[in-house]
Amino acid sequence: MTARFVLTVLYTPVQIVLWLAALAAFLVVGLVTEIITVFSTSYEQGLFKAMDQVLDPLAKWPSWCVSWPELRHEGDTAYYRARVEKRVGRWTKRASVPRKPGKPRPPVECAIPVRDYRGVGGWYVAQVALAQGWELRPTDVRKEVRLWWSAAS
């Protein structure tokens, strides 16, 4: 874990610089082609879609990254259990809100990333989620555990 933390510390500035460079490039392209966007909505939608595809992955940490709290609590299963329970509880609270007319539907699917259950395993996420009314979806536990709110059907 210590080596992963050191790599994370070295990688994070590179990731931030790449994200800022990509954002700057899209802003320059957007400013240069502003006249095109006045006449073509499909160009603007394509530009936004390209921005999402490039900037979203750069805004997320890879699964191998380790934060300081994760390094500090390495081997502490109580910390990770509390983290899983908090994350699943937050999703349960969101999903169990009654639907209001004119408002978007509450989320019925969620994904718990590996960084939240790294110290206790995906089986613990499944136990907590099943106890709160979630169902498991096909997933790769090396990346995330996908859940579906069963009360939505």
Structure description:
Helices cover 61% and strands 9% of the residues. The chain is mainly alpha-helical and 153 residues long. α1 runs antiparallel to α3 (41-59) and α5 packs across α7. The mean pLDDT is 88.
What's the short story on this structure?
With 153 residues, this protein is mostly helical. The protein has helices spanning 2-32, 34-39, 41-59, 68-72, 77-95, 114-117, 122-131; strands spanning 109-113, 134-136, 144-149. The chain is built from seven helices and three strands.
The number of E-state strands comes to 3
Strand order of the largest sheet: 1-3-2
- Content-based structural category: mainly alpha
* Cα distance spanning the termini: 41 Å
Low-confidence stretches: none
In DSSP terms (H or I, runs of 4 or more residues), the helix count works out at 7
Q: Categorize the overall geometry.
A: flat
Q: What proportion strand?
A: 5-15%
Q: Please, what is the average pLDDT?
A: 88
Helix content: 55-70%
Main sheet record? 3 strands, antiparallel
Radius of gyration: 20 Å
**Secondary-structure element string:** HHHHHEHHEE
Keywords:
mainly alpha, 7 helices
SSE layout and pairing:
Blueprint: H1 2-32, H2 34-39, H3 41-59, H4 68-72, H5 77-95, E1 109-113, H6 114-117, H7 122-131, E2 134-136, E3 144-149
Antiparallel strand pairs: 1-3, 2-3
Helix pairs in contact: 1-3, 5-7
